[in-house]
Backbone:
């Protein structure tokens, strides 16, 4: 959808390095808009996972006034390497073995509430048009009903914290779908195009 409107789309993976690279490119002024779907790096920053992009993640577009769409994608998980690398203090938590090198840990309702507050505070500094889209059914493949990381209390804590801490003039769109549903992708792309139009 974005390419049909003449935009070149660059994809950055939420691996720490990916988030930092994206933020630096936004700071350079070469970006027309940011579709920030996977903000999971903040979960790693908060709990001490291995894929943190640092404490300035989510700041570049806000400070530069670059039109943005932000979703709480994969804030249900923090990343570690093999099971032996998970700190002892997390014993008894819910884990998902993605592969032998990647161990995912489910974030708790308390952590999700803090993550929601952080996301809102970062976006409150926005000088340009920003919209938050929330997929109410699942924020990752494994947080959907029936999946290992499904935790409606944690998701609600996350969504409530975003909404209650966000500047009142920042639009929030809640959708009855999962983050990987085509209807959600379409909504994100359309919202970004609207925000780019507002800046022009």
Residues:
């Amino acid at each position: 959808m974005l390419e049909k409107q003449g935009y070149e789309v660059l994809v950055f993976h939420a691996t720490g390095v990916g988030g930092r690279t994206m933020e630096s490119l936004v700071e350079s002024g070469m970006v027309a808009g940011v579709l920030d779907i996977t903000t999971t790096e903040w979960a790693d920053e908060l709990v001490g996972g291995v894929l943190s992009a640092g404490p300035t993640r989510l700041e570049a577009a806000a400070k530069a006034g670059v039109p943005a769409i932000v979703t709480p994608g994969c804030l249900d998980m923090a990343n570690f390497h093999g099971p032996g690398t998970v700190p002892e203090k997390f014993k008894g938590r819910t884990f998902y073995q993605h592969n032998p090198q990647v161990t995912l840990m489910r974030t708790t309702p308390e952590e999700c509430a803090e993550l929601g507050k952080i996301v809102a505070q970062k976006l409150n500094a926005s000088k340009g048009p920003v919209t938050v889209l929330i997929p109410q059914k699942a924020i990752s493949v494994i947080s959907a009903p029936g999946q290992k990381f499904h935790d409606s209390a944690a998701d609600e804590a996350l969504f409530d914290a975003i909404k209650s801490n966000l500047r009142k003039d920042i639009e929030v769109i809640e959708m009855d779908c999962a983050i990987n549903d085509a209807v959600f992708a379409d909504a994100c792309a359309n919202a970004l195009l609207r925000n780019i139009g507002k800046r022009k």
